Structures are given as structure tokens and as C-alpha cells.
Amino acid sequence: MERALNGFIRALRLAGVEASTAEAIDAARTLALVGYDDREALRASFGVVLAKSETEKSIHDTVFDQYFARPAEPAGKSQETEAEENSSAGDSPETGDPEIDGLLGMAAGGGGDGGGSDATRAQINRAATEAGADEIRFQSQTSYYVARTMDRLGIGALEARLIELLNRNRPEAQAEAQILADARDRLRRMVRAAIDRRYELYGRPATEQFMTDVAVNKAMAQIGTSDLPRMKAAVARMAKRLAVKHSRRQRIKLNGQLDVRRTLRANAGRDSVPFDLVFRYKRRDKPRIVAVCDVSGSVSAHARFLLLFLHTLHHAVTDLATFVFSNTLHDVEDLLERLPFEQAMAQILRDYGGGGTDYGAAFAKLEDEYWDDIDKRTTVLMLGDGRSNYTPARIELFREMADRAKRIVWLATEAPGRWGTGDSYMLKYLPYCAQVSHCVTVADLERAVDEVLEAY
Fold first, then answer.
1. Does any domain span residue 435?
2. Digit-coded pLDDT (tens) for 165-182
3. Sheet containing strand 378-384, strands side by side
4. What pTM does this model have?
């Protein structure tokens, strides 16, 4: 596979297109058939082979245009400026040093920022690759990779010659030094344009991924408004990853395991001719979740991301009931389905997030109106800090709910060291939970939801 195709597929993956190894091989075969000559045909062909959705098609087209674009001439260049540059290039002296003369030729052929002949661009791109520019991660590294690329091009010889000329006092030496300095600057601009392009392809997506990793490992209570768009995208990717993982597990289970004993018994009556295989299948329940979320002020940030997670997982969790409470329990499933998520959450927090938290009252209403939603196929997913403002804990209702459900999983927003202190009932609820996880970050939520789905 050609280096150019390798780089393009790497840029696609960094941008979010999940191009598999098999698809990369298909792309190599496509390139062998189509070639580079017809750019639009190659663009369309790669789009068919490498993009699997409308979103990926849009990303593919953008990355293709960036990766295979010819550097543009600087905006607003006048004919006089171009003529002056060409004149200056034509006056480039022959120094007798092939390395310096080669650099002068590259700079003269550049014509400005990002321009130049195909040979010049190819030479700069090779030098940038040798300098490791494909590993750029942050924009602050640009100057470093420009300097490394210039070194690979042999700029040291030109600068040594420039210093030698500047140390002479003769006018002709100063004139030649000025020409060399202009050539060096033009070459540096061309290299800078090449490194900037590498940053857009490889560095910016890596920077975004780094910022997302920082955000998903930040305490949810500390996530600000500016982080929400990045967090929504991160939660969507997490949910997609879990949905793919658990749908794959289900397909594997459906294949069954060979039941040797029943196979031998089934074929014994006809001396195993023909030979029929008998498989043993393990029944898998579809995930059924009842989510009960505390949306009081101290827990609202955690509830926002758990509900976003669950509703992004709607393909994997088709049977989901969602309740929120502070002092009274409310069914919000219809609200979340009808409205955009952020608008629905704003209304939930506005209408149901006020008042003192009362776990006992929430369990009582769950028993009165929604008890039939909980059976032996149901995982009850509790989210809260277990603090109930000294109202009755209603342990008997919680115990009965644990008996009715497949299991209760509690996502605790407080550290274990604070359980049972003050008005916390966590230690009273703890014996009836199959699992209690301390969830501080979105990454913690992903692990907890993954474990819930594993139970099915």
C-alpha cells in the first residue's frame, strides 16, 4: 500500500471514520484501479469503500479535500508581486555549493506561501515525514517540526553561507546575503504551510481527543457549559461502543454450543447416518432497565450524563423506564423522547429538581404506580448520594424491590468514606444492592453501564 494512502487512512481514523483493515485493503485495490489522475473519481471511489454512513461520508469528503488538496497561492498576490518574486528568483546567485543551490532553486520555485512545483512540494513533504511531522499533536509543536524539516532539507549550509556573507562589508556580499535571506524566508513559509497541513490532518483531531479524554475523566460536578458539546459527542461514542460490544456478544451466544450427549442420542437410532448436530443454546434476556435518578442540586450533573448515556444506548436498551425525583417521583421517559435532550433536561431540573430529597417518598410512589414495571428481568439502576434529609428511609420497600428485580445497581455520587454519615442511608440500602459503584466521572458511568449490560 502506498505511503500516501496509509497517511490518508490514518487521517480518516483520527477524524472519526472507523476504517477497518479489510476496508483499507479494498481502498488499495480501488487506488490500483482508479489511480490519482482523476481526483473526483478517486474521491467518490474512496467514499464508497471507506465511509459507512452519511456522517462518515461527510468526514471522508472533508479529510480527502484537506489531504489531497494542492496548496493554494497566497490570497491577494498581485501580478507586480509575482513578477518581482520571479525576478528575485532569477537573480539567485550560483554559489558553487550544490546543496545551497538546490535550496535556492526550491525557494525560487516556491513563489510564496504554500506554492511551488510538484517536485518542490514532494521534496518538502518527504523532509517533513522524515522529521516526524505526522506525529504532531499540538499546535505549539509547529515551530519545532518546521525547524526539524528545515534541517532535513539542509538549511544549515545556507545559513552558514549567509553568516559568511554578512561578515563581509562589501556591497556585493550584502546584496547576495539579502537574496539568500529572502530565499530562506520563502522556503520557511513553504515548510510552515506543509506542517500546518499535517497539524490539521493529524494534530487537531489528536488534540480534540486529548481534550475529550481530560473531560470524561473530570468530575461531573466540575464540568462547565463549555464542555457540554464535547461531552455529548464523547458519550455518544461511548454508547455506540457499548452497543456494538453487546450486540456482538448476543450474536455469538445465538450460535450455540455443541451438545455432544444429545447429538449422540439423536443419531444412535440410524447408526449416525446421516449425522445431525444438536446445539445447546443459552437464553439471553434483552436488557430491561428501570432508572431512578436523584435530580436534586448536588446530584443533577450526574443525572444529566446518566440519562444522556442511557438514551443514547436506545438501540441496545430497548426496554427502558426513566424516573427522576427529589421529593416526589416522576416518569420522564415521554418527556425525553419528545424533546431534544438538553431542552428536556432543562425542564426536568426546573420542574422536578427543587425541594428536599426524600428517598422514602420516591420508593412509595414507585410501589403505588409503577411496581409492575419491575420483575425478574429488570435491573433497577439507582443514581444518587443516598442522603434523604432525615425523612423515613422505607428500607422495607427497597428490600421488596430487590426481591422483585433481577438486581439493583446503585451508582453512588459520594465516596464510600461518607456513607452513613449525617442523613446518608447508603449503609442501610447497601445490603440489598447487587453492585454499588462510586461514579464521579463519565468514564465511571461507562464502566457501570457496561457491567449492567454484561448481566444480560
1. yes
2. 888 888 888 888 888 888
3. 329-331, 319-325, 288-294, 378-384, 407-412, 435-438
4. 0.63
